[in-house]
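Hi support team,

I've been running sequence recovery on a batch of backbones for a student project. Most finish fine, but this one hangs at about 90% for roughly twenty minutes before it completes. I'm not sure whether the input is malformed or the queue is just slow. I've pasted the structure tokens below so you can try to reproduce it. Let me know if you need the job ID as well.

Thanks,
M.K.
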């Protein structure tokens, strides 16, 4: 466990440093979904808070999308036993996103509603930062999702300002590969909560992930090259921007 923990911790620390993600006095909403990514993020931030030379406050939050059976109670019990208080916010976001009025892209609407609620909670809790558990693989997949389905080149930024700089979204796991998160989660014995969402496993992200996994299997350097490419964009060799 020590080996993979150190690797994840080192990558998280580098991302936090490179992007100046955390400052003294920050109040940070930590988005907890019940998945291994968000549980890893929360564990690493709790550990960082204990040893970092700067003082910051964590407000872990789970936004329940409203599907049954809900694992909110079990998640809250686990987090509060091992990592501290967890705020559970019950919503109908998933139900609304999968209603007959919104058949086209339920994941997009559900994500947007959940993000909006996190913004509101951050405001109500006096927090200036929201930490999300997206990892290196997520950033790469988002690049291709945007190209394939939106006709644009872009991904999720490790650190992004909103509302004239009064709120920051940070992704401290941006440099961490999914496989390391899986290994660490198994070592730490994180519980596996079954996702009740009807779209789980049938999303655009799933399709892109399978495509990329095939490429990674052929050449182990491809993932690293794609990730580096997102920070080495040659604007002179792209098409003229169109309206």
């Amino acid at each position: 466990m020590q080996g993979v923990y150190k690797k994840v911790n080192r990558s998280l620390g580098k991302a936090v440093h490179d992007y100046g993600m955390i400052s003294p006095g920050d109040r940070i909403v930590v988005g907890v979904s019940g998945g291994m990514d968000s549980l890893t993020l929360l564990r690493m931030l709790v550990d960082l808070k204990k040893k970092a030379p700067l003082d910051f406050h964590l407000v872990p939050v789970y936004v329940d999308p409203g599907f049954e059976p809900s694992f909110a109670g079990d998640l809250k019990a686990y987090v509060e036993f091992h990592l501290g208080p967890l705020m559970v916010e019950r919503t109908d976001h998933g139900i609304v996103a999968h209603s007959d009025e919104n058949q086209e892209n339920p994941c997009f609407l559900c994500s947007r509603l959940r993000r909006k609620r996190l913004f509101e909670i951050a405001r109500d809790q006096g927090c200036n930062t929201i930490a999300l558990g997206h990892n290196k693989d997520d950033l790469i997949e988002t690049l291709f999702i945007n190209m394939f389905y939106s006709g644009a080149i872009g991904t999720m930024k490790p650190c992004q300002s909103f509302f004239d700089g009064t709120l920051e979204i940070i992704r401290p796991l941006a440099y961490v590969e999914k496989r390391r998160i899986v290994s660490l989660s198994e070592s730490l014995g994180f519980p596996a909560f079954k996702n009740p969402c009807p779209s789980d496993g049938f999303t655009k992200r799933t399709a892109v992930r399978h495509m990329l996994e095939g490429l990674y299997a052929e050449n182990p350097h491809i993932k690293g090259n794609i990730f580096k490419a997102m920070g080495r964009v040659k604007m002179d060799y792209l098409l003229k921007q169109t309206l």
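--
Follow-up from support: It reproduced on our side and the slowdown came from queue contention, not your input. The chain has nine helices and six strands. No action needed from you.
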